[in-house]
Amino acid sequence: MLPQHALREVIWLFLKLGFTAFGGPAAHIAMFRDEVVSRRQWMNDEQFLDLLGITNLIPGPNSTEMAIHIGYVRAGWRGLLAAGLSFILPAAVIVLLLAVLYVEYGTSPAGESLLYGIKPVIIAVILQALWGLSAKAAKNRGLAAGGVAVLILYLLGINELVLLFGFGGLVMLTRLNAAPVLLAGFPLATAETPYSLTQLFLVFFKIGAVLYGSGYVLLAFMRGDFVERLGWLTEQQLLDAVAIGQFTPGPVFTTATFVGYVVGGFPGAAAATVGIFLPSFLFVALVHPIVPFLRRSVWFSALLDGVNMAALGLMAGVTVQLGIAAVVDVFTVLLAVSAAVLLIRYKVNSTWLIIGGGILGLIYTSL
After folding, report:
1. Distance, CA of 58 to CA of 221 (rounded, Å)
2. Do 222 and 255 contact (CB within 8 A), yes or no?
3. What distance in Å separates the CA atoms of residue 212 and residue 234, rounded to the nearest whole number?
4. Half-sphere CA count of 238, side-chain side, radius 13 A
5. Is 254:65 a contact under the CB 8 Å cutoff?
6. What is the DSSP code string of 142-160?
7. How far is residue 235 CA from its own chain's centroid?
8. Are 258 and 270 in contact (CB under 8 A)?
9. In sequence order, what DSSP letters do the residues of 332-350 get, joined into one string?
10. Does an H or E element contain 107, and which?
């Protein structure tokens, strides 16, 4: 039986995260763990890791799909819808407002001062999550060594999808002589076409249904479709769209909202947003009920162990890259260290630390 008020709890939590979860998927996953494992105890680290592993095995935005999974665990199918929508809508509305300003004034609003203070705090949040999750994922020395190898290979430039499925498959092959299955996308029209709302929806639905990886992979997909094939965006508009998606809280995939508005106004923004996120709801609804059976399967359990460890290796690699860009002077070093101490020693909520970091960044840069 589901806990009383569970749906309300899900809505409140993911609305809050939709407005405050800056920093991309790795930071979002870290904040989710802080909220649902450490604070609310809706699940334990092993259950959280299994959901993360399954999320990495299906296409789409990882943090959004994790939100949908968590909502399903806490409040059933209504929680599935509520968590996803509550996490997506705040970011989509913010991006839409910025898109309206962009089209009206032709400039992309800058948030350097805000991000200057937020980024070092995000590094501390991710590191705390990595430390807690790695203790559960590294079940033996082989898995631990594999996670380190994934980290190194990622930093050397090896494709993250190859590493994720490669290591997961290697673990399964080692135990069972089996192999993972890769999902393929479906093609759309290849000739340049005039703007169409239906075509816009289908392109974003395709992207949401087949895309693995980071926001940089999303950039590659959108460039191929909207700049090169359809000619609906310029290179500069695409870069501005990605910058807005990175700067705003919530899912990076709300970049689609910005693109949809630029090419098709409010109907385009709605079609693009629904198109790119709809596959995530469908995938999670199909896969989530069989997660316990997959864990009991010797084959999939081995694959999941490998994927979980590889996902943490990739998360560590992203953290290294983010850290190089975020911790750039004495002030940001102090912010990162202070945030780590407050998180680990005093268990301060990561949301308040991120808000505080942004405020301090604004104050410091204005002096």
Report:
1. 17
2. yes
3. 24
4. 19
5. no
6. HHHHHHHHHHHHHHTT--H
7. 24
8. no
9. HHHHHHHHHHHHHTT---H
10. none
**Is residue 260 over pLDDT 90?**
yes
pLDDT band at 210 (very low <50, low <70, confident <90, very high): confident
What phi, psi does 18 have (nearest 5°)? Answer: -60, -30
Q: Does residue 108 carry a pLDDT above 50?
A: no
- For the question of whether the overall pTM of this predicted structure is more than 0.90, the answer is no
pLDDT computed for residue 14 by the predictor: 95
**Which ranges of the chain does DSSP label H, i.e. alpha helix?**
6-20, 25-33, 45-57, 62-105, 112-137, 141-155, 160-176, 197-210, 215-222, 235-247, 255-287, 291-296, 298-326, 330-344, 350-366
CA angle, 214 then 216 then 221, to 5°: 100
Answer for the pair 125, 357: CB distance below 8 angstroms, yes or no.
Answer: no
pLDDT in tens, 155-187: 888 877 688 778 888 888 886 654 443 333 334
Amino acid at 204: F
Amino acid making up residue 359: I
